[in-house]
């Protein structure tokens, strides 16, 4: 039973979570990818999280990460508020549908979908 | 026409985000550059705003399904600014191409691990829909 619903709050567990957060911040800063690309696989492969718990927890962490980064970019005037808010409407519709669909597919299928996303990202990075 | 394509791409980004637990920036950024003529920095910054809103909506939905570990999420999120600093230091020490190839290798490694896991039988207790 690898699916960990609650991690023991051991010191080692906290240290590993700190490393996940640091890695997520570093990769999102370096490559402009959301931290989720790093958070989800690490929670699944390293912490033994089930796929649904990993993706839900990742989304909650991303709220914080992206809010800090967006605020930073907002100070420099790089955020187009109108277009961002406008496009957020269909995007929120998508995410509500996506999470609903996700509850109906097997957890293993989510791992396979995520592997596909990682391959797409790898190809984008390799092809100049 | 461009507006319609932007709306569809944004919806697809949200869908991917909800399915696999990422922010959706992988599709938001192209939607903003291609269809709305933003430059790369503006698009990435505006995408971050969208990610906040989308991830919040997704996290609330997942929380209602019982799929969020708030404590772990808060720890990961709170430590990420440290990572940004680490990233800036690393970016100044290592050539960009080497970084891209390193992360591509890491992404492929994790993909292989996830595929191996994905092809194993599900270890969960039987559910009504289990085959």
Describe this structure in words.
The complex is a heterodimer of chains A (128) and B (131). Chain A has helices at 11-31, 36-45, 51-75, 81-102, 107-126. With 128 residues, chain A is mostly helical. In chain A, helix 1 (11-31) packs antiparallel against helix 2 and helix 2 packs antiparallel against helix 3. Residues 1-7 of chain A have low confidence and may be disordered. By secondary structure, chain B is an all-alpha fold. Chain B contains 5 helices and no strands. Chain B has helices at 2-20, 25-35, 40-64, 70-93, 96-119. The longest helix of chain B has 25 residues, at 40-64. Chain B is globular and about 45 Å long.
Strand element count of chain A: 0
Low-pLDDT windows of residues of chain A: 1-7
Distance between the termini of chain A: 42 Å
Count every beta strand of chain B, where a strand is a DSSP E run of 2 or more residues: 0
* Percentage of residues in helical conformation of chain A: over 70%
Which geometry of chain A do the CA atoms define?
A: globular
Quaternary state of the chains: heterodimer
Please write the string of helix (H) and strand (E) elements of chain B. HHHHH
| Total of helices of chain B | 5
Q: Structural class of chain B, please?
A: mainly alpha
Describe the secondary structure blueprint for this structure.
The complex is a heterodimer of chains A (128) and B (131).
Chain A: H1 11-31, H2 36-45, H3 51-75, H4 81-102, H5 107-126
Helix pairs in contact in A: 1-2, 2-3
Chain B: H1 2-20, H2 25-35, H3 40-64, H4 70-93, H5 96-119
